[in-house]
Design brief:
alpha+beta; 4 strands; 4-stranded antiparallel beta sheet
Length: 112
């Protein structure tokens, strides 16, 4: 799994929404932990319909057509991941923020 990942949210009305978040913190390989962490927070966003499925996208490109993709990616890329000595503290704090929904970047509804 990559450091920054896209999640696809499928809705009961047949539409899709996307989010960006940090990928390796819940589990470095298995996306199930990440999805389980994110799913309860999705009710904070006005997605437009009930959620039927949440899945990890194969690449960020899958979400690139979402309205706020580049803004969210730019914001996330401004945050330095402190590999090495400070990584554990950063990872624990970022994971806590993900659990409360503040490190989930909703990419908006598709333009019609």
């Amino acid at each position: 799994m990559d450091d920054i990942v896209a999640l696809r949210v499928e809705l009961a009305n047949g539409q899709r929404r996307f989010l960006l978040t940090w990928g390796r913190l819940a589990d470095p390989i298995d996306p199930t932990s990440l999805i389980d962490l994110v799913q309860p927070q999705l009710r904070k966003f006005d997605l437009g319909s009930e959620i039927t499925r949440v899945e990890l996208c194969a690449t960020l490109q899958d979400a690139a057509s979402a309205p706020y993709f580049y803004e969210a990616l730019f914001h996330m890329c401004q945050q330095k991941i402190p590999y090495g000595e400070g990584y554990g503290t950063w990872a624990a704090e970022t994971l806590r923020k993900m659990r409360d929904g503040s490190e989930l970047y909703y990419l908006g509804e598709p333009r019609s």
